[in-house]
Design a protein that fits this description.
The chain has 365 residues and is α/β, with parallel strands linked by helices. The protein has two domains: 257 residues, Rossmann fold (3-Layer(aba) Sandwich); 73 residues, Immunoglobulin-like, CATH 2.60.40. The protein contains six helices and 16 strands. β15 and β16 form a beta hairpin. α5 runs antiparallel to α6. GO terms for molecular function: carboxylic ester hydrolase activity. InterPro entries: AB_hydrolase_fold (IPR029058), FrsA_esterase (IPR050261), PET_hydrolase/cutinase-like (IPR041127), Secre_tail (IPR026444). It comes from Psychroflexus gondwanensis ACAM 44. This is Secreted hydrolase, alpha/beta family protein.
Length: 365
């Protein structure tokens, strides 16, 4: 259940604490979010035998050739009067990181968002059939519970509508989406990119409304790219590469269910990013390797300028530690008004240790 405040609870690898909880995440870092990724990529088209779906026009599947299956998959559709080439760079990018990607065209370049939603669902049907097509190199290699959708402009609006139409969709990436009067009651985790200077789908009339129309219980992020135009998220290189790094981390987290990518988002990519003019977020990290019997701790606000308030059901001892592992404060938190004052410390990242658990705090001035 979501708290009233954005909660970041995770363990941290440090000489001061046990590193066993996060050993599984040792090979995952910002440096791994490269373009291209580590895997070789090949393509499949209808000439190779893939299905010709009735609700879209032509398709290209990008897939990794030297990664370990089963693979998650994502379907991507372009925007109004646009061809698949407008978003094709996402295909080899995702595939080079182990995510099978199908990029489709539309039956008409004038198709509206609802038609594009149906086109995406039809593309996912093609992915499903590749998993059972005898001559497909992907036969038996796809995880059909890990399917996502994405799109640009009207395609982005269509991607969000696809999640409403099919509640099995595991994730949505909307690229400068265009969709008036959005009806977005779905539970699929959604990442929305918008451009600050977008005159085709102005954020105040589209992306911002989409974020607000998505239920509060749905994990969601809105990332507005500073000075970005309508095509700023058409490639993973948008926003100085931040678009690709965030989108990949989002899909690894929610599509592949890899919790190791959550700290990359919460502690790095979404914290005062230079590429963003605005970031809104409503999601929380899963606890990695935390025993279910450990003490429940709530805290807010985070980031903070001075006071951090803690919700802990009993009196506890705490220790505040710098990002370099230096002890800074320690004491006892007692009674009903538990708080720690960080006003004397500079803007930075801090670690709060309470009964073997570690909370990551961000101090902003």
């Amino acid at each position: 259940m979501k708290n009233l405040y954005f909660v970041l609870l995770l363990t941290f690898i440090s000489p001061l604490f046990s590193n066993s909880a996060l050993a599984q995440c040792d090979d995952i870092s910002l440096e791994n979010l490269t373009n291209p990724g580590p895997f070789d990529v090949e393509i499949l088209t209808e000439a190779d035998g893939i299905r010709n779906g009735p609700n879209y026009l032509e398709a290209t599947i990008y897939y990794p050739t030297n990664a370990t299956p089963p693979f998650a998959s994502i379907a991507i559709v372009p925007g109004f009067v646009s061809l698949p080439t407008s978003v094709e760079e996402w295909g080899p990018f995702y595939a080079s990181h182990g995510i099978v990607t199908i990029i489709i065209g539309t039956n008409s370049i004038f198709d509206l968002p609802e038609a594009r939603a149906n086109a995406l669902l039809d593309a996912l049907e093609t992915i499903k059939q590749e998993n059972s097509r005898v001559s497909s190199p992907l036969e038996g290699d796809l995880n059909l519970d890990q399917l996502a959708v994405s799109g640009w402009s009207m395609g982005g609006g269509g991607a969000q509508r696809a999640a409403v139409l099919d509640n099995s969709i595991a994730g949505v990436v909307a690229l400068c989406p265009w969709l008036p009067n959005p009806q977005l009651n779905h539970e699929s985790p959604v990442l929305i990119f918008s451009g600050e200077e977008d005159t085709v789908a102005p954020p105040s009339q589209h992306a911002d409304l989409h974020y607000n129309a998505t239920p509060n219980m749905t994990d969601k992020v809105l990332f507005e790219i500073a000075n970005g135009d309508h095509s700023v998220a058409n490639t993973p290189n948008g926003g100085g590469g931040s678009v690709g790094r965030i989108a990949l981390s989002w899909l690894k987290l929610y599509l592949e269910n890899n919790d190791c990518y959550c700290p990359l988002l919460t502690d790095n990519l979404l914290v005062n990013p230079p590429a963003a003019s605005k970031v809104e977020q409503s999601f929380e990290c899963e606890l990695l390797g935390i025993d279910s019997q450990e003490l429940a701790i709530g805290f807010y606000p985070n980031p903070t300028r001075n006071i951090v308030y803690l919700e802990i059901p009993k009196d506890v001892h705490y220790e505040l530690i710098s990002s370099l592992g230096q002890p800074l404060l320690e004491g006892n938190l007692t009674g009903n008004n538990k708080q720690i004052d960080l006003s004397q410390f500079p803007e930075s990242l801090y670690y709060l240790q309470i009964e073997g658990q570690v909370i990551k705090l961000i101090k902003n001035n």
